[in-house]
Write a structure and sequence with these properties.
Layout (H helix, E strand, L loop, with lengths): L2 H18 L4 H11 L4 H8 L17 E3 L6 H9 L19 E7 L5 E6 L4 E6 L5 E5 L9 E6 L7 E5 L2 E5 L4 E4 L13 E4 L14 E2 L5 E5 L15 E5 L7 E5 L7 E3 L6 E5 L11 E7 L4 E2 L5 E2 L3 E2 L17 E5 L3 E6 L13 E5 L12 E5 L1 E2 L2 E2 L3 E4 L3 E2 L4 E2 L3 E6 L5 E5 L4 E7 L6
Parallel strand pairs: 14-18
Antiparallel strand pairs: 1-6, 2-32, 3-4, 4-5, 5-6, 7-8, 8-9, 9-10, 11-12, 12-13, 13-14, 15-16, 16-17, 17-21, 19-20, 22-23, 23-24, 24-27, 25-26, 28-29, 30-31, 31-32
Bound molecules: calcium ion (2 copies).
One calcium ion (CA) binds next to loops.
Length: about 450
């Protein structure tokens, strides 16, 4: 039996056991909590973002450019580790597995703490950092689909995890600020001083790292995660996917009841927002699942903190609410996999069966007793239903040793139909391509 399938079966049994009995989740939670290693306090520490690296923004001097080496030299990486740039371990692709016909190669090996990806104009890809203070631009200047230069386009930032590119400008979301670098393509060597569009985003650090993208409606979407593992805040902006106008004004809740989303995309045909969501901790190894959700209109509520995964009433925060009151997930993902970036595939390079499929980067569990995730999954759709949830890139996790060589963060499609994948553990960006000689 495939290991993923066996986990699904085990998960289904646990879910049935815990969710099937009306008041049994508390019992399940207690039993499972006892089996989990880290205490809530340790958990919060492990998830908390790094403090700002620089005491004062140093944006004007962010002009460094350095040649990209084929393999990141260990000395360079050691230097970066010491400087607190995210502790990059270097890319190791030997043990990775993909479906037949697909291959994965290093696109850029020199991108410490590589997080969110945003395609710029042809040949340029922007890469954010979360534990670092920088935003990078990778440039493939000769069109061979390997980056030739890595530019630092901004530095001295506070957790600049969110980036989006629109009409020649790069938008960067720190925890509490939204910045814009204009005419960025012409100034990769000497980036402009950023325009501060907003400095009033919530400043809570727990789930405070942002993920931003422009929707088909021209609004900038920005999840505002719950500032906790689980809690209920009076301010409706928390545990939401919010949006604002491109000039940083008009912040409003678009989708409520979302614990923390770090990845989303709009369906290529319906133009509806689909998003991944990270489930709460401290309910044990197998509860709750992460989720893939669909927002068909503004104003829907997706359950947090009252209901998880469409069926699990929270043992502490149910507050008399029933799961039937909320939008259920399209698909429950495996528990604690930390599903982050997702993209619908619209390219021509991959076989037909991947058309409009959702590729999901699973960063991997951080407090599960046995690690899970650390892979790219693909969810193929049948209309608005998930028809499958299958491994696409695996091998970053050695399950027998419980050791890790990479942590997928975000996926982005290049104009040739290949996919880029960021890895904040290795400090690298990979490119996944299909040979065309197999239907994979
Ligand atoms: Ca190149
Ligand atoms: Ca939900």
């Amino acid at each position: 039996m495939h290991p993923t399938k066996s986990r699904h079966d085990r998960f289904s049994r646990t879910l049935a056991l815990c969710a099937g009995l009306a008041v049994s989740t508390a019992g399940c939670a207690k039993k499972d909590r006892d089996a989990v290693g880290p205490t809530p306090a340790e958990g919060a520490a492990a998830e908390a973002p790094a403090p700002p690296v620089a005491s004062a923004p140093d944006l004007a001097s962010a002009t460094a450019e350095r040649p990209l080496r084929p393999e990141a030299p260990s000395q360079l990486i050691a230097t970066r580790n010491a400087s607190g740039d995210g502790g990059s371990k270097g890319a190791k692709l030997d043990g990775l597995k993909l479906p037949a016909g697909f291959s994965i190669a290093v696109y850029a090996a020199d991108v410490p703490n590589a997080r969110s990806l945003a395609a710029g104009k042809k040949g340029t890809t922007f890469v954010s950092t979360r534990k670092g203070d920088k935003v990078y631009a990778l440039v493939d200047s000769n069109g061979d689909y390997k980056a030739d230069r890595v530019h630092v386009v901004a530095s001295g930032l506070d957790t600049p995890n969110g980036i989006a590119y629109k009409d020649g400008s790069l938008f960067i979301a720190e925890i509490s600020r939204l910045l814009r670098l204009d005419n960025i393509d012409a100034h990769l060597d000497e980036p402009p001083k950023p325009v501060v569009l907003s400095d009033s985003l919530p400043d809570e650090k727990h789930h405070g790292w942002r993920y931003i993208r422009f929707g088909p409606d021209g609004w900038l979407y920005i999840p505002i995660g719950a500032p906790c593992n689980i809690c209920e805040r009076e301010e409706p902006i928390f545990s939401s996917i919010a949006r604002m106008k491109a000039d940083g004004t008009g912040l409003e809740v678009y989708a409520a009841g979302v614990r923390n989303s770090v990845g989303f995309d709009w369906h290529p045909e319906t133009r509806e927002l689909w998003f991944t969501e990270n489930g709460r901790d401290e309910l044990g190894d197998d509860l709750p699942p992460d989720e893939l959700n669909r927002a068909s209109k503004p104003g829907q509520h997706f359950g947090f903190p009252h209901c998880h995964a469409g069926v699990i009433v929270d043992p502490e925060y149910a507050k008399g609410r029933a799961c039937t009151e909320f939008e259920p997930p399209v698909r429950n993902l495996d528990p604690h996999v930390a599903a982050l970036g997702m993209r619908f595939y619209t390219g021509k390079m991959f076989p037909e069966r991947y058309k409009n499929a959702a590729f999901i980067a699973e960063h991997g569990s951080w407090n599960r007793s046995k690690k899970l995730g650390y892979r790219v999954m693909v969810v193929r759709l049948d209309g608005n239903a998930a028809a499958s949830y299958e491994p696409f890139v695996t091998g970053f996790l050695d399950e027998t040793k419980d050791e890790v060589t990479g942590r997928p963060v975000d996926v982005e499609q290049l104009e040739d139909g290949s996919l880029l994948l960021s890895d904040d553990y290795a400090g690298a960006v990979y490119r996944i391509s299909h040979s065309g000689s197999s239907d994979g």
